[in-house]
Amino acid sequence: MSPDATRDRAHVVVGYLATPSGADGVELGVSLAQALGAVLDLVCVVREEEPDGTPGRAPYQQLLVERAHRWLADGERIVAGRVPVATHAPVAESFTGGLLDTATSLGATMIVVGGTRDGIIGRHSLGSISSELLHCASLPVALAPRGHADRSDARLATVTVAVPAVRRGDDPLPVATDLARRAGLAMRLVCLVSSDDHTDIDAEASARTRTRQIAAAQAALDDARARLGTGAEIDALVGDGDTLEAAVASLRFGDSDLLVVGSSRLGPPSRVFLGSTASRILRSTTAPILVVPNSGDA
Questions:
Q1: What is the mean pLDDT of residues 190-216?
Q2: Residues 184, 142, 89: CA angle, nearest 5 degrees
Q3: Residue 15 host element (H or E)
Q4: Which of 44, 95, 140, 210 has the smallest C-beta neighbourhood within 10 Å, fewest atoms?
């Protein structure tokens, strides 16, 4: 695809390797690009070979680049013409660094990757690349669950936002709202409540604490709905469980859902930083997940 054809369109970048998890990332990238009317950019980073005076080092580097382009052709076949696609094989010191630099140069909306293949089908598990991105990226990072490549007929329909009980810099609502508006997707607000954060010594005290938690969660949802400034009816649900995992399990997620969560408020401003709560949510949901950078607000 020519640069002129992509100049005025949004870009969704997929970090690609010719592996099953790479295919998972491509499939999620296609869904997001379809929703946003965006160009899908497949990026396969080639590790830079340090020159050491050895004859043949430059030709070997070129062979690696040519192999990357062959892998990217495999990725294009997965896309199968469903969205406009461009391919990139930058040479960089690290896959993560090359991917971030390429996404920045393209003005990308987000970066998409698949997880590792050692987890349970339909669940998330982090590899080295996805883990690095989820602790340093300046763009939202979307992660496809294992086996997402089998959902090729699924199109995104709903953005589910994990609203924190207290407004702070890790609030994902602004990014999720913008995504839903641009893509014409429905929105659902959820706030999670569990017993993990309190250790009451008796059942009565525990019940009082849970009642306060649920009230605080409902207030947070009401506040979030008010901030949306829309007359549209938006579902707002409290996910309640003895553990955070049980609270996530109490909510239904379909193939058309995208779950949006915030970064830890303890992370650096304007960067993605996957905190402990978001990590547990990620491991508990079957939906693709989008982690947004910390806004830096208090």
A1: 77
A2: 110
A3: strand 11-15
A4: 210
